[in-house]
């Protein structure tokens, strides 16, 4: 019996990837014997899949700051619904294979890409984008490490202008990073083989993480004849659009493609564009915000509660906040600092109640000890900036008087000398003065 | 009591003339006496008595569930029955106890029917005796002098029926009279969300109206069914039946189903292909081959020496070896032969020429019937079998493939077209064994088909077998038993 949710997921994914949704698609049995395939066949869509001819746009960053962003496209050949097999766990030590049948029969969506990509980074980026799309759609959490998204890479090399070379299939890839590595190492291997007069075998290889290269998988000996046959228990899958929907049709029994299209959530590319327009942030920052689960939400929650400029928020979230997360290998939802706390901190900074150095200190303290608010920490540690302009002027004056040599250096044009003065003033004011303000006062006093 | 129709027994139960428990016990006793016939693979005595008890309670309170409450039924052993061994008469499934009931079984139990046990069949329903994929409800019905009804494909759920040929299998109903079959059909038919090939609409139980006037009917006699191997006896009864309709005012005409001669071969290609696919799951692993208490017959590790470095391909090679060994042991010749044939037809190089071609021929055969029905014919009248039942020793002279090619000749085109058909007993042969005739109806016009069959049955007045009396007459039993044991020793 066909699972409605699976069909909806397939249609949503097909639409998000600009595919043509086939209003009629068929199911087939693909036969082979293997211990993890309990029925001896897998139900798939070999003759007529549910969606075809789509495209996936992904962006590659070129160069350093300011980095240029180039958009590339990989064509989608088709999307098909099929069943999962069980899982084989090979225990080499005890010469046995353990079969876990829990996932056998569960619905899968297979997305087949055309050979439009030319290196590991492109593939990894495209896959990454696909993950974000699937996550935005809610059709899959697409975590590669947990097998929610499984990627097999077909790699071949050829001279420009010549037809595609013999391809090998690389399996056993459980992260985008290793996907890129595996592809690049396989490209290298194939070039090496060909340049040495050898041929590439059409085989299946697996990526060996320790060696950092691909090894042949001697699993599939000889060519398999899958003896495809139409699946007799599943009638052809018919989908409708608003125009073709039969009148009086039971909504439980039919799927309307237009209805699904209208309800598609915002896709990552649209989100990024919106962030750039709405907050004036740079494209690369927009990317970064989408690149971490929960980060965008965190960012938007901070923005809601703070008066600080979006650029400032971006910088704090992407550099400081993310930095702390990565250091301790935490996910966004595990952060000890809440969006409200950070918003409050940025407000203090914004109205110059504290210096940016102090702010960083406060953040560190927030991270360490939960429950305290930024204001509490500021008063506990006495980090408030001096608000008394006159007192600050007097402090500068005192330091200048006390260090005529340094003053001379400044007047002579030594660019670093002023920092010494600033340092001295800060020391004198117990770091409670805003260095920017100090600098401004000193410069005023020192100018002829 | 055991020789009465369902309706009669149901009435007797309602009136208190007999209790469900008494009925159940009588049945069980008869089953025990006829054990030598090997008709039952599993007799579910405890379950039956418990169900009978519960039925009795309901009758006492005046709250019977309907016409089927307390009625003993038997289910062929290729329908899953929860908690009761289901084997398809194959070693491959020996000891397999399903955790669920087939939809049709559940529907019968929900109506209060009492399950006496699981009946025997040819291994995996391949051959003359089986659930109706090629005629195996109608065929044995004809040979045994009972009514065998095959519903339209898609009318009755196949969920829980261990599949042979998914696109042709239907649950078949065997009863003493047409009316009883209609009662049961009313309870079984209708949409099942667990079977995507069933019709969308629910079906309400119905009372079969009694036809009195056949003058508006048109009966078709397919001329291609006048096969040279048809026995004189059957041919004569077929003729008499046609004449009967005519004499009562019905229009009886000769029609043509031109692609009939291709039907058997077409059937075999499609049947074996689907069989090969459906049998792929029986590898001895999930459904354990061997004794319940013992270890599974083989495990992969036993095929690979411990201590030897085990490559993935070694495991694969030894898995294949294990599968091959298990399947060789678990399946008999007939089954293996069909699997091999089916896989041959599904090979990439053969698919177009065999499978696809057969699908096209199937379409032509189905269209033959559509054309005939569209020309004004209500039902077709044909023989069910080539001749009356043969004695066992006679029967085993030919191999299974020849036998089924012969016996299915009139019945399997119906399965390919998905039409409803019913075999009604007509007379006894010269050997004193029953002969039946078949009516074929338009798709989903099962009620009308049964209505006509019921009229015919009334005209024929075929005597109901009184097995109980036969059994009660002690002298004949030992003779029958002796005969049976002689032939069964083969």
UniProtKB/TrEMBL annotation, chain A:
All copies of domain Asn/Gln amidotransferase, residue ranges: 297-446
Species for this entry: Neovison vison
Name under which the protein is recorded: Cytochrome c oxidase assembly factor PET112 homolog
Transmembrane feature ranges: none
InterPro entries (alphabetical): Asn/Gln-tRNA_amidoTrfase_suB/E, Asn/Gln-tRNA_Trfase_suB/E_cat, Asn/Gln_amidotransferase, Asn/Gln_tRNA_amidoTrase-B-like, GatB, GatB_Yqey_C_2, Gln-tRNA_amidoTrfase_suB_CS, Gln_synth/guanido_kin_cat_dom
GO molecular function: ATP binding; glutaminyl-tRNA synthase (glutamine-hydrolyzing) activity; transferase activity
Gene Ontology BP annotations: glutaminyl-tRNAGln biosynthesis via transamidation; mitochondrial translation
Entry keyword annotation includes Lipid biosynthesis: no
Keywords: ATP-binding, Ligase, Nucleotide-binding, Protein biosynthesis, Transferase
Source organism, top-level taxon: Eukaryota
One Pfam family here: GatB_N
Catalyses which reaction(s): L-glutamyl-tRNA(Gln) + L-glutamine + ATP + H2O = L-glutaminyl-tRNA(Gln) + L-glutamate + ADP + phosphate + H(+); L-aspartyl-tRNA(Asn) + L-glutamine + ATP + H2O = L-asparaginyl-tRNA(Asn) + L-glutamate + ADP + phosphate + 2 H(+)
Nucleotide-binding found in the keyword field: yes
GO annotation, cellular component aspect: glutamyl-tRNA(Gln) amidotransferase complex; mitochondrion
Coiled coil ranges: none
PANTHER family: GLUTAMYL-TRNA GLN AMIDOTRANSFERASE SUBUNIT B MITOCHONDRIAL AND PROKARYOTIC PET112-RELATED (PTHR11659), GLUTAMYL-TRNA(GLN) AMIDOTRANSFERASE SUBUNIT B, MITOCHONDRIAL (PTHR11659:SF0)
HAMAP family (alphabetical): GatB
Lineage: Eukaryota, Metazoa, Chordata, Craniata, Vertebrata
Family: Belongs to the GatB/GatE family. GatB subfamily.
Gene symbol of the encoding locus: GATB
């Amino acid at each position: 019996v066909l699972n409605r949710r699976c069909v909806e997921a397939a249609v949503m994914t097909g639409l998000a990837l600009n595919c043509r949704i086939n209003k009629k698609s068929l199911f087939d049995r693909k036969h082979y014997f293997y211990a993890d395939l309990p029925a001896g066949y897998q139900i798939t869509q070999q003759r007529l899949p549910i969606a075809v001819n789509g495209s996936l746009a992904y962006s590659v960053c070129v160069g350093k700051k300011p980095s240029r962003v180039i958009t590339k496209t990989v064509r989608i050949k088709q999307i098909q619904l099929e069943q999962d097999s069980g899982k084989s766990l090979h225990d080499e030590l005890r010469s046995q294979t353990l079969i876990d049948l829990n996932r056998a029969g569960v619905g899968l969506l297979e997305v087949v890409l055309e050979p439009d990509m030319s290196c590991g980074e492109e593939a990894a980026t495209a896959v990454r984008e696909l993950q974000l799309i699937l996550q935005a759609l809610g059709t899959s959490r697409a975590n590669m490490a947990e097998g929610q998204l499984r990627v097999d890479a077909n790699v071949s090399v050829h001279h420009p202008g010549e037809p595609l070379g013999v391809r090998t299939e690389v399996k056993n890839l459980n992260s985008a990073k290793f996907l890129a590595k595996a592809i690049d190492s396989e490209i290298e291997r194939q070039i090496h083989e060909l340049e040495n007069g050898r041929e590439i075998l059409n085989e299946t290889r697996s990526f060996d993480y320790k060696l950092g290269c691909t090894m042949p998988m001697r699993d599939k000996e000889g060519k398999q004849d899958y003896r495809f046959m139409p699946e007799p228990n599943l009638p052809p899958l018919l989908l409708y659009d608003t125009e073709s929907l039969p009148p009086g049709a039971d909504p439980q029994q039919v799927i309307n493609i237009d209805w699904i299209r209208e309800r598609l959530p915002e896709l990552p590319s649209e989100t990024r564009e919106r962030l750039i327009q709405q907050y004036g942030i740079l494209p690369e920052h927009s990317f970064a915000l989408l690149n971490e689960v929960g980060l965008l939400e965190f960012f938007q929650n901070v923005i809601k509660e703070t008066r600080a400029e979006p650029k400032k928020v971006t910088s704090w979230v992407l550099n400081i906040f993310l930095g702390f997360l990565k250091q301790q290998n935490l996910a966004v939802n595990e952060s000890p600092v809440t969006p409200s706390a950070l918003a409050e901190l940025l407000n203090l900074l914004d109205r110059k109640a504290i210096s940016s150095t102090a702010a960083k200190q406060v953040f560190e303290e927030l991270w360490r000890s939960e429950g305290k608010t930024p204001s509490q920490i500021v008063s506990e540690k006495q980090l408030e900036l001096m608000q008394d302009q006159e007192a600050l002027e007097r402090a500068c004056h005192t330091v200048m008087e006390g260090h005529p040599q340094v003053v001379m250096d400044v007047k002579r044009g030594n660019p670093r000398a002023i920092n010494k003065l600033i340092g001295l003033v800060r020391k004198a004011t117990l770091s409670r003065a805003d260095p920017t303000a100090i600098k401004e006062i000193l410069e005023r006093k020192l100018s002829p | 009591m055991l020789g009465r129709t369902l309706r009669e027994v149901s009435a007797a139960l309602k009136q208190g003339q007999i209790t469900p428990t008494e009925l159940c016990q009588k049945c069980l006793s008869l089953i025990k006496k006829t054990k030598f016939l090997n008709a039952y693979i599993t007799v579910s005595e405890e379950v039956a008595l418990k169900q009978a008890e519960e039925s009795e309670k309901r009758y006492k309170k005046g709250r019977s569930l309907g016409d089927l409450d307390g009625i003993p039924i038997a289910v062929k052993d290729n329908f899953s029955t929860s908690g009761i061994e289901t084997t398809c008469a194959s070693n491959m499934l020996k000891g397999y106890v399903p955790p669920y009931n087939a939809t049709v079984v559940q529907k019968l139990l929900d109506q209060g029917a009492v399950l006496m046990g699981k009946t025997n069949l040819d291994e995996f329903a391949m051959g003359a005796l089986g659930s109706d994929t090629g005629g195996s409800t109608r065929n044995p019905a004809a040979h045994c002098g009972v009514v065998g009804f095959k519903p339209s494909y898609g009318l009755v759920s196949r969920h829980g029926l261990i599949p042979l040929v998914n696109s042709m299998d239907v649950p078949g109903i065997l009863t003493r009279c047409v009316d009883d079959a209609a009662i049961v059909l009313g309870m079984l038919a209708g949409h099942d969300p667990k079977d995507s090939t069933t019709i969308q609409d629910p079906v309400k139980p119905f009372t079969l109206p009694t036809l009195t006037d056949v003058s508006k009917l048109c009966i078709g006699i397919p001329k291609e069914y006048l096969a040279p191997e048809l026995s004189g006896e059957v041919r004569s009864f077929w003729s008499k039946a046609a004449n009967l309709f005519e004499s009562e005012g019905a229009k009886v005409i000769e029609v043509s189903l031109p692609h009939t001669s291709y039907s058997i071969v077409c059937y075999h290609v499609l049947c074996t292909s689907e069989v090969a696919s459906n049998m792929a799951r029986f590898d001895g692993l999930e459904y354990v081959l061997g004794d319940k208490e013992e270890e599974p017959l083989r495990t992969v590790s036993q095929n690979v020496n411990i201590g030897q470095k085990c490559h993935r391909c070694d495991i694969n090679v030894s898995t294949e070896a294990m599968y091959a060994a298990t399947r060789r042991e678990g399946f008999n010749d007939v089954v293996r032969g069909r699997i091999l044939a089916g896989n041959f037809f599904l090979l990439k190089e053969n698919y177009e020429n065999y499978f696809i071609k057969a699908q096209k021929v199937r379409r032509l055969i189905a269209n033959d019937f559509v054309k005939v029905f569209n020309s004004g014919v209500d039902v077709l009248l044909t023989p069910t079998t080539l001749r009356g039942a043969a004695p066992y020793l006679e029967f085993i002279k030919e191999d299974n493939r020849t036998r089924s090619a012969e016996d299915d000749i009139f019945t399997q085109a119906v399965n390919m077209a998905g039409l409803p058909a019913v075999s009604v007993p007509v007379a006894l042969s010269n050997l004193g064994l029953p002969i039946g005739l078949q009516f074929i109806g338009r798709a989903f016009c099962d009620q009308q088909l049964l209505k006509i069959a019921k009229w015919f049955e009334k005209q024929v007045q075929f005597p109901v077998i009184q097995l109980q009396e036969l059994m009660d007459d002690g002298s004949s039993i030992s003779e029958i038993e002796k005969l049976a044991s002689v032939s069964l020793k083969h």
